[in-house]
Structures are given as structure tokens and as C-alpha cells.
Amino acid sequence: MTKGTAIITGASSGIGAVYADRLARRGYGIVPVARDRGRLTALAERLSTEHGVTVTPLPADLTRDGDRERVLTMLRDDQGLSLLVNCAGIGPKAPLLGSERAGLDSMLHLNVDVLHSLTVTAAQAFASRQRGAIINIASVVALMPERFNATYCASKAFVLAFTQAISTELKPHGVQVQAVLPGFTRTGLFERAGVDIAAIPPEMIMEAGDMVDASLAGFDRGEIVTIPSLADIQLWSDLENARLELAPYLSLKQPAARYATGTGSR
């Protein structure tokens, strides 16, 4: 076992389960994390049989402090861990104005707070070992917040910005970081969110296996941000270059001339 061990949240189904399969194929030991003990056990049996790797299921509800602390302790203490894949997350059931605040708060807690605590713990542990990698699943809605539930879009924008920011800090320590921005992906997320997947044009929906395979190809290339559907990478480069060109103008002593008011005006 030369790859080390990958710990994958949200691994009992959907994107997380596909990551577990693909990484097991690559020779990683697998620690799948999810609430459903039965699904985790079945996944572990299949992966160990098909790929001959060690699979250690870790049943945990990451929204519960005690369960989350067990995962954080493993990230801190297990020297064999070399990869964290943050797939755990939930989507909205309605637009913001039609949602209950408690549901939005719960979504933010899992999509932002939990991911943040896991990523920070892994980043510090991996940096101290001078090796490792972190993959965070964001979403293309981070780039088009007008198109979807505002709270969900903001949670995924956090994942994107946070991952880009820590990549700079972790690079000198030999730790690789990637944010993955899927579009519509065929998983159980739609059903759980009460969305009729049949209402989405089929040409917009990617199979989970294709999405993960593309994302791992981007990971192999060292991409910090991977958008599996994007054929013309120059479009992303242009967006990033435009953002960076703003930098010299974002913090100056004087307000911009277009905001100037007349002397003495109120």
C-alpha cells in the first residue's frame, strides 16, 4: 500500500461512494464516513473484495459534535491518512423565500462549518507531515449565485474561496488542494431535496462516475479548481485573470472618482 489511506465523507452513496471506488482502484486504503452503517458495511465488503484494499467504515453523523470529533481525531492522529475528500453536504428543498430558516441553518452547518473544521484539521496534520491532499466538493453555482437557492450558492462559494485560499498556504508544505465544481450530477441529492430530475434537460446531467473520473483527472494534473463540464479552460483562465487584475484597485486611500460628492454636501 503506497498511496496511504483516503478518508471520504458522505461515502455511503452518490459522489462519495464513487470516489471510494475510484480511489480503492488506485490502491488507497479507504475510510468511508457516513451515517448509514448498513450501506457503509456493504460498501466496505465490495471494495475490499474487488480491489483488495483495507476498508475501515466509520459510521458518523458529522452534524453531531461527538461523531465529528471522532473523525477529527483520526485526521489528527492517524499517520497513514494521506487524502481527505469532503463530499458530505445537503441541498435546499425550495428557494430561499420558501425555506424554513432552521433548514437553511442546518445546510450551512454541514456545507460550511463541518467542511471547514475537517479541512483545517487535515491541513494542519498534513502540513506537519509534509504530504497529503484535500479534495473539496463545491458546485458550479458558486459561479452563478443568481441561478439557485441563495444560501446553498453562498455555501458553495465559501468552499471555492476557502480552497483557493488555503492552496497558497499549503503548497510550500507539499499538500495538494482541489475544489471540484460539478454541475447537475445524477445522485440521490435530487430526491432528498424534492427535485424532479426529469424536469432537468438530460444534456445538463452528468453521471456521477463520469464526474468523479474527470475530477480525478484534474487532480492528477494539479488543478486547484476543476470544472468537469468545462471544455474550454481558457474561459476559466480569463475569469481568474480578470479577478486578479482587480487587486491593485480594491484597497486605496481615496474613494473612486465616480463616488465623489460635492464639498460640504450631505
UniProtKB/TrEMBL annotation:
Pathway where it operates: Lipid metabolism; fatty acid biosynthesis
The name this protein goes by in its record: SDR family oxidoreductase
InterPro entries according to UniProt: NAD(P)-bd_dom_sf, Sc_DH/Rdtase_CS, SDR_fam
Keywords: Fatty acid biosynthesis, Fatty acid metabolism, Lipid biosynthesis, Lipid metabolism, NADP, Oxidoreductase
Annotated Pfam families: adh_short
Similarity annotation: Belongs to the short-chain dehydrogenases/reductases (SDR) family.
